[in-house]
Amino acid sequence: MSASSLRSFEYLEGLPGTTFNRLYKQPSTALAIFRRMLPHLAKSFVMALLYISRPMPVTDLEAWVRPDGRRERDNAFNLLERLHILASAANPGKPRAYNLTNPFAASLRLALTGGGGHNSFGVPTNVAEDDVITIPELDEFARKQWEGVLGYMVGSSTGVDLSNSGVELSPGVQHLLRGGGLVDIRGRRVEITQDGFAFLLQEVNAQVWTMLVLYLQAAEKLSMDECEVLSFLFTLGSLELGVPYSKTNLTATQCQMIHDLSDFGIVHEATPEASHFYPTRLATTLTSDAGGLRSTSLASSSDANRGFIVIETNYRIYAYTSSNLQIAILQLFTRLITRYPNMVAGKITRESIRRAISMGITSDQIISYLTTHAHPQMAKKQPVLPATVVDQIRLWQLEGDRMKATPGFLFKEFNTQADYEAT
Amino acid sequence: MNAVDGSDHYSKTSDEPPPSLLTIILDTNPNAWALLSPTLPLSAAIANLLVFINAHLAFNNANKVAIIASHTQRAEFLYPLPAHEISPHINGSNTHNGDVEMADGDEPTVAEETSTDDANHYRPFRQIQSTLLTSLSTLLKTTSPTSLTPTTSIAGALTLALTYINRCTLNASTTSPNPTTTTPSDNALNPDTAPPPLHPRILILSVSGDLAHQYIPIMNTIFACQRLSIPIDIAKISGDTVFLQQASDATHGTYIKLEHPRGLLQYLMMGFLPDQSCRGFLVAPTAVGVDFRAACFCHRRVVDVGFVCSICLSIFCSPPEGAICLTCGTHLQLGEYGEKPAVVAKKKKKKRDMVDGKAKEATVRSRPG
């Protein structure tokens, strides 16, 4: 399970069972949850049970799993029950048996076979020739919007001028960022928080999910139906890139969502009044696994941004990028020395790492950022990053953790010695 | 401080299993399906297969599928289609390096029709369904009654499957910008250095029996799969062949003989859906005994006991003419084949020895006393 899905996942687990029942009525939701949320073994169980009409005895399922896979099996069952996918059937007198819960199984079957009248995979429309938006245009739009959001967060604290990105953040987005504790607004200055740094160093897909969970939490306050919002998000994940979809069959809430999400670059709508919208790559990769993401994610969609960092064993770092945003992020934990038209060179030093750590960035975040953005030539090697650098970054963090506080109790003012000895 | 030491954190283990490529070889021998039609007509089998394919694709976004028909006299791709079959007019640009471009799910392969059905069907699923159905119907239409033979060209289909898997593996190793530097054999030789970018496997839905005349090509493909560690799964719907059992056994695949062909879908879902990373945890539903018999090279007969050339290990059901190996031409010496072995009568043990032995024992026992 990748880190990106964890947040959405924790959020989902907290929902009451009735919400699940309503969510699973949409085949696209059932499919997306099946694909994204379940570990591999659990998927096998679901598929094995999907076309069995009678509940399956626990003993049979257990016999199917090898003895050394018991931990994985228990994990899988546990999770399936928490997500209300698997339920133990009530058949008194017989051993415990499992079957799939009904709205989920029926929806998944519908998703696999097609048919029904749910329209949950989006209704494509035909658009006049000159209105068609190509995939590169969509990518460019999504990149611009998303980097605008990130730039808004970074820009204030690092002093790099990001104003030329030309994206004006809508008040809604600014409000959302502040509400989620990612930035802190003091007067007119925007200051990034610790959570904000952690957010910045995540993968794009994880960032999108984090943002969407924030959106979901905000939606509750705006008295939007969270169930409707969620199921529309999962629908978005199953749409196809570069195809216009009709808005006519969407509810008012969902139309409002399209408007909000276009601020992030997750969907594209020409005008608020237009009758159709395009999902961008940010939306269509929502329900992909991390494995599929590396090749399709936004970061790698344009060749220039696909892995650009070279780091050497002498802590020198070279980044082939001219994006102000990327440079600003790098500057959070490196000392940049020179800047060339398509490259910046810098050095990881103790001071730069300590500074980053004092801002709340952890060494693991830095390492994972460097790993995900490693240059293809570096990514070929195993391990990707030089071991000395990885160790040193961790050591620099540990320098600050020499003392550890554990909670304790203080008892005082005992009346007698006997009392003292009795405690 | 010890926490930072230890080198296990260098190897970045990805907890997500790699995507898997499922290559399905569908035996489309019309004779065999005609025999099966009371229990499992071809249309029902295809419908079940489609659900199975969709389930496979639902496992992971990057999962891929290829379907190959093993027809009476030839093997053909049903999905994905070679690009020139879809757009013959742009054929010239594809053939410049001798490669056949395969249209994959990324490009719209079929004429896009915006029907109301679209919104109710996940798009990749629908694409595969329509492509598979159209190519299958063209395949069946082009079959003339004269070309009907009771066998099927499994060997050809397996070869096609291997070529396709090879190509996908090359494409999948995107981490190296120059794909020619890593060949799949490199990956197979040192699997520890780089995790496999793709888990390929082959599933054969077999309905016809008697593959003895293709013994050699089939065994060759089996050994190729074994070397590349590609499991071959067999769903034996009807008929019985010796070699497919060996195929699944040699490549650690699953062999299931369907007792009730009507329940094809459940067999597929339970037995064949879990991929390599899952099978590590599951008890494999595999055949009890494997038939290891081979076919002779001279008459393609399945033999229990045969003659083996000592040079090239070719198998013959009877000594070849003039005792010259048909494969390598070595002049073989049969020795005294067919003669009755001279039986040497067992010598009877001398009684005296026995008496001596007992006598010795007696002395040993008596000594402590």
From TrEMBL, chain A:
Domain Transcription factor Tfb2 C-terminal stretches: 391-422
Transmembrane portions of the chain: none
Pfam families with a match to the protein in the record: Tfb2, Tfb2_C
InterPro entries with a match to the protein in the record: Tfb2_C, TFIIH_p52/Tfb2
Entry keyword set: DNA damage, DNA repair, Nucleus, Transcription, Transcription regulation
Compartments where located: Nucleus
Family, similarity comment: Belongs to the TFB2 family.
Functional note: Component of the general transcription and DNA repair factor IIH (TFIIH) core complex, which is involved in general and transcription-coupled nucleotide excision repair (NER) of damaged DNA and, when complexed to TFIIK, in RNA transcription by RNA polymerase II. In NER, TFIIH acts by opening DNA around the lesion to allow the excision of the damaged oligonucleotide and its replacement by a new DNA fragment. In transcription, TFIIH has an essential role in transcription initiation. Component of the general transcription and DNA repair factor IIH (TFIIH) core complex which is involved in general and transcription-coupled nucleotide excision repair (NER) of damaged DNA.
PANTHER family linked to this entry: GENERAL TRANSCRIPTION FACTOR IIH SUBUNIT 4 (PTHR13152:SF0), TFIIH, POLYPEPTIDE 4 (PTHR13152)
Name under which the protein is recorded: RNA polymerase II transcription factor B subunit 2
Species whose genome carries this gene: Stereocaulon virgatum
Source taxonomy: Eukaryota, Fungi, Dikarya, Ascomycota, Pezizomycotina
UniProtKB/TrEMBL annotation, chain B:
Biased composition (Basic and acidic residues): 353-369
InterPro entries: TFIIH_Tfb4/GTF2H3, vWFA_dom_sf
Stretch list, region Disordered: 172-194, 348-369
Keyword terms of this UniProt record: DNA damage, DNA repair, Metal-binding, Nucleus, Transcription, Transcription regulation, Zinc, Zinc-finger
Annotated localization: Nucleus
Chain intervals with Low complexity compositional bias: 173-185
PANTHER family linked to this entry: GENERAL TRANSCRIPTION FACTOR IIH SUBUNIT 3, TRANSCRIPTION INITIATION FACTOR IIH TFIIH , POLYPEPTIDE 3-RELATED
Subunit annotation: Component of the 7-subunit TFIIH core complex composed of XPB/SSL2, XPD/RAD3, SSL1, TFB1, TFB2, TFB4 and TFB5, which is active in NER. The core complex associates with the 3-subunit CTD-kinase module TFIIK composed of CCL1, KIN28 and TFB3 to form the 10-subunit holoenzyme (holo-TFIIH) active in transcription.
Name by which UniProt lists this protein: General transcription and DNA repair factor IIH subunit TFB4
